[in-house]
Amino acid sequence: MKQILITGGPVHAHLDAVKIITNNFKGGLISDLAYHLSKMADPTDEKLLGAHITYLCSKSSEHPLKDPSVGGGTLNFLEYGNIKVIYHNGFDDYMAKVLELAPRMDAVILGAAVANLIPYKAIEGKFPSHNYKPGDLVPLIFKIAPRVIDEVKRVAPKTHLFGFKLLDGVEFGELIRAAYGVLLESHATAIIANDRRNLNSKFIVTKERAIHPVSQEDLSKWIWDMIQDEYYRTTKLPCESNPTCTGIVKPYPNELKELKDFSNTYSGRWGGFTDTPEGYVFGTLAKRCNAESFWTTGRGKHEEESYAFVSSVSHSSKTVYTVGEKATLNAPLLSHIFLTIPDVDFIAHSHIIPRKFRELGLPTLDYAPPGTVRDSIRAIIGSFIIRDHGLFLLYKKDGTLI
Fold this sequence. Notes:
By secondary structure, the protein is α/β, with parallel strands linked by helices.
């Protein structure tokens, strides 16, 4: 059973012993998400529940166990079935509990509305209002609170991490830039962006800066599928372990040159690389070397400038074997294509889909995060599109599109 931590409702900061600063949210939508995730089935047995939910909130928040009579517990928590509700007492306690619980979790979903503007120093005891008259000015210094999501991967590097980014009345591009910025800094699996004017309409932003519109009703299934995802890992081989590579000589140098030439030769035919406002470059090229090995673009900010040699991919152990740099996250999918369609010699992947390829009626496959089993092991017979991700063009040796 998957262990999932979900936080919801407002997270307040203390002004003094009795006064707080907080957000105008009760957490109803996150509570609803937690409830639906608690009903998800185990993928190996649809009759079994697949998750235990730990829900962290304040005592005034909405939560999945709204009626205290349904669960046993103490003043500090409620528990019923596969849901446990734990209470926090403000920002410091909230952050401490998230970081304490995260290492035990398969997934952490931070949906609480945190008061990120907190007092620099809380007033000890109760504010002495008897020393002031109505209309007096009271200087208070606030600071931006530490961002809890940025600390989760430090204590729980293997957990799936999801966060939310809420803005109000901004342009769509600004909303996505803000969400993607949080994703990059926190190393989250995905950030769910939405505007306060339409809380039921959400946009899931993923690592390759793909944007996936999703309704509130479909959000739990999206997150559940991503929690189930298994990722490939990379093992770097020493150059000497490859018979075609000695010393600083690259394996298959002719194929590497062909790959570099391919970008220029076909730049007007495959969409090309995409520059993002954050300075990243997305897109992938790959050139077959033999039955199992291929050259492809490297992982990082400048895919068109770095290249990686993939010696082989073990799909049974979910391992990518490289010589030199880490390969693009698309490497397992590229390997699967080369292995299943022997005529494929070049593969070009672009986040841009030129009109002429849309007009070809290429099959559109469901999205899955790059580097996962779900994304890599697909039924493919030729060029295709992945929804909300991009275009994959498969070429023969003579440049014919498959």
